[in-house]
Amino acid sequence: MIIENTLAFVERLHKSEDTPKTVKSILDKFINNRKTGGLKLFMIICAIMGASFMSAGIFAIISHNWDDFPKHLRGVLSFVPALVALYFYYQTLFKHKESIVWKEASGLFLFFMIGASIAMVAQTYQMDGDFKKFTLVWLVLSTPIIYVSRTSSIIPFYLGLAGVFLTPDIYWSYFFPTGYGPNEDLYIFWIFFAAVIPHVIMVFNKNGKQGVRSIFLSYYLAIYLTLSLPLIFPGGIAYWYLILIVGFYFLSRKYFVGNSLRQRPFDLALYFILGAGLLTLSAAPEFAGSTYAFLEEEPLWRLEDYDGEKLLFNILALVGFLAIVVVSILKFRKKTGYSKHILALPLIVLFQLILLNVEHYLDFDMMWVGDWLFYLYVIGFSVHCLSEGGKNARYPKIIYGLILISLFLWFRYADTEMGFIMKGLTFMMAGAFFFLLNFIAKDDLDRIEEEMEVETTTSNDELDER
Amino acid sequence: MNAKKFLFGIFALIILAVPAYIIFKSEDVLAGGNKHILHTIGFDPVDKFRGHYLDLNYDDIVLCDEDLKKGDQAYVVLEKDSLGFSYFAFAESEKPDHSDYFICKLKYAQEKARLDLNNIKRYYINEDKVERAEDIVQDYTRNRPNDIWVEVSVLDGEIRMVDLFIEGTPILEFLDNTEE
To answer: Which residues of A touch B107 (CB under 8 A)?
Structure first.
């Protein structure tokens, strides 16, 4: 309603003869953008889809293997995909340099055709089954496209291919695979990942609300990092997830403040990871002994047993973890408006880490303190989500808080350390709390319905009078 | 604008230089390299980017220098047996003083090494011919192993496949000459 009224006001202002020319020209741009924005986006998406399907078709035609042609002819034909793509890319850079459609489509097409040319030569000379080497050359040659034409559409494919350097290595004996471990070329993934970061920051660095390109890139990066984190960091995974949660939070605060929740992928991802993490750890006492048993998977006292990448990533994880602890404390103290419910998490984990080491070195069992602190955090975080959601009428947040707290309480029902009477009273109180919420919501609903009825009656009376 | 076009030209040349380098290097090894024939067995998977191929396996476990370990690049020496077939004889850490060797990564090494023979493992083949080719390769592997071989060419540490032969005829010719 507010948006419609504002738009009507803008239209009137635009038509009015009293509006100064400078304001009119700004309004002109706004109105045109509003009318054509959706169409432009549709054109960009169509061009990207066109380039990707066209490329897939060319790959399929190459894969047919034209072995009836003489080798020298196939050698010459290998250059054709890259040459055609370079022609379109040239057109983009020198004839259509303002067109996003050309930039995205020709950049993506060139990216694929570089791969097609190399694939065709490899096929002609019956060589190189090493997919890693093929990918390495392909990505190195494609990296300039991201910056020369600022093409974002290749990022998903680029990082998807770089994922080759994330897949676990299989260890061999003479005859059989004997196990698997971190990819020995993991550092190459890191180089390619680092290569896209400046582009992503350039896209994010704009005033006001983030547009479609940033939101699309953020969704991709948030999902990619969340799913592949255990492969990207082969040591200290629990700390890295914590760093990711806090990192996503700061990224969202820095770049996505003006956007709605569904346009803030980093926020969505952090709530997803946090919710899944809190629920898993809430259930952990039943099978692992405590809510922070995960810290015992790679404890400080075992660092000296590690070597190579595992040691390096454990140390980096600890340094990163301590860094976010320091940042969280600083943000807490400065009263910057950051969510204390997110910033409290690293501090709780630090406290648990200290308790774990106290128990190990001093043989002094205080694990239950860490557990209760964690329980209080989950309850506090859930209630915070409920109250924030209630205040701003954000029902997804309310439902998120409800799911979190109710599942947390159900996990507690399985606790064997709590006496039945205590458990019974706690659960009855929880039941009463939910009924109370129901009554409050019912009161609100009745009030709103009454107000609507009054409004309708008044409008009808006014119409009758006329 | 001219500087930009010049830079674009360099970028385009770099992109085109990669397939060109692979072609010239391969032609060099194929034309000037020492020829060897190797026993092989094969089957048919698909590469989504490069199409159907016969996956060729060799006797790839060889004696090696003690200082070599998993992931190292080694100099693999080729020797010939009494029937004229070559085999991978030894993986050395030092470059040999003759030219019958190629450089290869080791999948595993402890007294003996398992070779990572990427450059001669795939025989890319037309999708219409692959099924027959696979049947023929498997038939010869089982029943007449001395009549199927791969010819390779080695030069300056590089190795390339010349062709896959059935009874001394390149497999594509063999397929053309034999009825379905």
So the answer is: 172
3-class SS of residue B38:
strand
pLDDT confidence bin for A129, thresholds 50/70/90: low
Q: What are the chain B neighbours of A137 within 8 Å (beta carbons)? A: 18
In a domain, A189, yes or no: no
- Residue A378's φ and ψ, nearest 5 degrees, are -60, -45
Q: How far is CA B117 from the centre of its chain?
A: 7
Q: What is the pLDDT of residue A12?
A: 72
Long-range contacts of A88-93 (CB under 8 A, 24+ apart): A89/A145, A89/A149, A90/B8, A90/B12, A92/A149, A93/A148, A93/A149, A93/B4, A93/B8
Confidence of residue B94 (pLDDT cuts 50, 70, 90): very high
Asked if the Cβ–Cβ distance from A119 to B48 is below 8 Å, we say no
Q: How far is B174 from chain A (nearest CA, A)?
A: 14
CB contacts of B22 in chain A (<8 Å) are: 118, 121-122, 125, 127
Question: A382 is in which domain, residue-wise?
Answer: 237-417
On chain A, the residues whose CB falls within 8 A of the CB of B61 are 174
Least confidently predicted of A232-246, A447-461, B130-144: A447-461
Q: How many domains does chain B have?
A: 1
Q: Is residue A344 part of a domain?
A: yes
Q: Give the list of residues 6+ apart from residue A430 with CB closer than 8 angstroms, or none.
A: A409
Q: Do A121 and B5 touch (CB under 8 A)?
A: no
Which residue range(s) make up the domain with B30? 2-177
Q: Is residue A359 part of a domain?
A: yes
pLDDT tens-digit readout, A343-390: 888 998 888 888 888 887 887 777 788 888 888 999 999 988 988 888
CB pairs < 8 Å spanning A and B? 120
Domains in chain A: how many in total? 1
The closest CB to that of A121, out of B11, B23, B49, belongs to: B23
Beta bridge partners of B157: B102
Which residues in chain B are closer than 8 Å to A133, comparing Cβ atoms? 118
| Radius of gyration from C-alpha coordinates of chain B | 19
What residues are paired with A171 via a beta bridge?
Answer: A179
Q: Which of residues 18-37 of B touch A (CB under 8 A)?
A: 18-20, 22-23, 26
Tell me the C-alpha distance between A353 and A239, whole Å: 11
* Beta-carbon separation of B122 and A67 below 8 A: no
